[in-house]
Specification:
The chain is an alpha/beta fold. It has 13 helices and seven strands.
Length: 365
């Protein structure tokens, strides 16, 4: 079921993008590209989990193969021609034999065979080798390696690379392209058109459920603001709805800076003031796109640490809450041209190949 829901989640925004003219029909080919490896992995995982579930009855002397043989015999073998009354008697006899294996006199520490079977079951449960009902790593931690995204060259562990065993593995957040956007609790400082109607939210609440839009998540730094400025301009060229979220360090709302004076950064003091003054050059893009920018602060932990990012950077997140692209901290080229390439690849649309072409398009917008 989880796989099916994920499939729909992956395909819905792509269909909407094509129908609304935001993306080329070629983007639909990325559905199988992204989802097939996940579906194959989950199928193998489900089978491994079933086999793990059968380990407990097997340890108790209830061989699943015998149950399968009885089932086949009753449905397609000699049992199928027996009168229903005889079929019932036959099945009850088999069930009684199975129940006898679990009876207290037999399955006890005083019975050598029963004691051995109990030890086997205890070992299976202790090692987590029995039926698992939750798979956090596989349900949340899977990552698309190719498709409507910009893959990175650097290697990072992927849950799909490990052979499914049926054992539970914990979810490890990642900001690598193709991954699901990590959850983090945030306090809203200003939201404009985000309409969150709450003071505390998750990073996953930043998306509008009824609009096909991209989200750029950044931290307050000059580098990130340059990316945000370029992202808004390129999004206008591609006619793609875009919102920007700035995640401030925890404690900013307790500083002299009030929510109503987010732009009057000079009123605050200390290290927060220095951070704010260092990005004042980016204020033009804020004023031009203020209704599509939300400011939030960390409540606990660090966003950069959660994302395993050593330097400030931005994440471009798709409408299905998967990361399409992550900025490279060593990038020194033209941010407009870089994001032009990013949106072109993600939306499967032709790339404007010159800066002048972009400028002409922006003048028209």
């Amino acid at each position: 079921m989880n796989t099916g829901i994920q499939d729909a989640h992956n395909l819905a925004w792509k269909l909407a993008s094509v129908l609304n003219g935001l993306a080329s029909p070629a983007i639909l080919s990325t559905y199988e590209m992204e989802r097939k490896p996940i579906a194959e992995f989950n199928t193998a995982l489900s089978l491994a989990n079933f086999n793990a579930a059968m380990s407990v009855p097997s340890a108790l002397g209830l061989n699943p193969n015998i149950a399968n043989s009885v089932h086949q015999a009753m449905n397609s073998g000699i049992g199928s021609i027996l009168p229903s009354g005889l079929q019932t008697v036959f099945l009850e006899s088999i069930f009684a034999l199975g129940r006898a294996q679990l009876a207290t006199p037999f399955l006890s520490r005083h019975n050598p065979l029963g004691s051995l079977r109990l030890e086997r079951v205890e070992h299976i449960l202790k090692e987590g080798q029995s039926l698992q009902l939750q798979f956090p790593a596989e349900d949340l931690g899977f990552r698309y390696e190719q498709g409507a995204l910009i893959p990175e060259v650097e290697k990072e562990d992927n849950v799909l690379e490990e052979k499914p065993t049926g054992r539970r593995r914990e979810y490890v957040p990642s900001s690598k392209p193709g991954s699901r956007l990590p959850h983090m609790q945030l306090r809203i400082l200003s939201q404009n058109k985000f309409h969150l109607n709450k003071e505390i939210c998750s990073t996953l609440d930043l998306f509008s459920g009824n609009v096909t839009e991209f989200l750029l998540i950044a931290t307050p730094s000059k580098t990130c603001y340059i990316w945000a400025d370029a992202a808004f301009k390129i999004a206008k060229v591609y006619k793609v709805p875009l919102k920007v979220c700035i995640i401030w360090p925890g404690g900013i709302s307790a500083s002299p800076l009030s929510k109503e004076s987010m732009h009057a950064w000079h009123e605050s003091e200390g290290s927060i003031t220095q951070q704010m003054q260092s990005v004042l050059e980016g204020e033009d893009w804020r004023r031009e796109n203020t209704e599509f920018v939300v400011d939030v602060e960390e409540i606990s932990g660090s966003w950069l640490e959660l994302c395993k990012m050593t330097k400030p950077g931005v994440l471009l997140v798709r409408p299905d809450e998967h990361i399409a692209w992550r900025s490279n901290p060593t990038f020194s080229g033209d941010t407009m041209l870089e994001l032009n390439k990013v949106f072109s690849i993600v939306l499967r649309k032709p790339e404007l190949d010159t800066h002048q072409s972009l400028k002409t398009k922006l003048d028209v917008c």
